[in-house]
């Protein structure tokens, strides 16, 4: 006997909030630090790296109770901003960018790498999933949820690129020849795999989306790209760190 997940809200609201109303309620809560659940947001961050499946069970529960998949608590966004500040400081020290360079790098990280790229990625995935993966046309994927999926996947990705990479850069990743290229490309393979897998988990958790396993078809292309970069000896870590340096100097 099959079980069907009930995604109808169990709350007593008689009207569904519009997307604009949900965004306004979210923005209003950004100033209310005493009402944010930072402990739970930190739990999400840890599990996005060690057990990402656990995180998306909460998103399904939120849909049942509050009629939305997207986060209604900005605590995760606040902690992500703090993480970007700390990781930007670490990269600044490693690359010797100075204080002005730190400010520039932080602004790039927050407004271009995170928010700008996130809005583009979320919009593309929101359009694609609603156009090609919906089995029930009475429901649609919220744009805010697509953006949350990107933030979740980005955090795991940035743990490797903004924390592990600068720590290992000079002793290992920047080495000339095959050794440096191998470890640098492997680090990016793991980081990109996390991003792709967490993105897949996010959309596969939506009960009215079907065929989301097709997102995993990108893994063979990722592996092929990895083999090519290692084969030609391209050190992607050195290229990225040089890009970080020259875009703020």
Automatic annotation (TrEMBL):
- Where does the chain cross the membrane? 76-99, 105-128, 149-172, 178-203, 215-236
Major localization class: membrane
The answer to whether UniProt assigns keyword Transmembrane to this entry is: yes
Q: Which GO terms describe its cellular component?
A: Golgi membrane
Q: Name one Pfam family in it.
A: UNC-50
Q: Which InterPro entries match?
A: UNC-50 (IPR007881)
Annotated localization? Membrane
Keywords, in A-Z order: Membrane, Transmembrane, Transmembrane helix
Membrane topology is:
Multi-pass membrane protein
Q: Which family does it belong to?
A: Belongs to the unc-50 family.
| Protein name, per record | Uncharacterized protein
Q: Which organism is it from?
A: Ramazzottius varieornatus
């Amino acid at each position: 006997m099959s079980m069907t997940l009930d995604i109808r809200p169990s709350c007593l609201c008689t009207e569904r909030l519009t997307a604009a109303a949900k965004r306004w309620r979210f923005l209003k809560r950004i100033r209310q630090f005493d009402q944010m659940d930072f402990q739970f947001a930190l739990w999400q961050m840890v599990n996005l790296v060690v057990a990402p499946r656990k995180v998306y069970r909460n998103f399904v529960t939120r849909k049942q109770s509050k009629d939305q998949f997207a986060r209604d608590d900005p605590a995760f966004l606040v902690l992500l901003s703090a993480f970007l500040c700390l990781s930007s400081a670490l990269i600044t020290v490693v690359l010797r960018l100075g204080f002005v360079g730190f400010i520039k790098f932080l602004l790039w990280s927050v407004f271009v790498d995170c928010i700008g790229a996130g809005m583009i990625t979320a919009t593309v995935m929101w359009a694609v999933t609603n156009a090609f993966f919906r089995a029930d046309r009475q429901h649609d994927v919220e744009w805010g949820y697509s953006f949350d999926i990107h933030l979740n996947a980005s955090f795991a990705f940035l743990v490797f690129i903004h924390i592990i990479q600068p720590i290992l850069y000079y002793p290992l990743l920047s080495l000339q020849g095959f050794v440096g290229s191998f470890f640098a490309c492997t680090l990016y393979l793991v980081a990109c795999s996390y991003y792709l897998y967490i993105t897949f988990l996010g959309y596969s958790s939506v009960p009215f989306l079907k065929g989301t396993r097709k997102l995993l078809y990108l893994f063979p292309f990722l592996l092929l790209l990895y083999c090519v970069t290692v084969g030609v000896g391209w050190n992607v870590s050195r290229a990225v760190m040089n890009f970080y340096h020259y875009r703020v100097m």
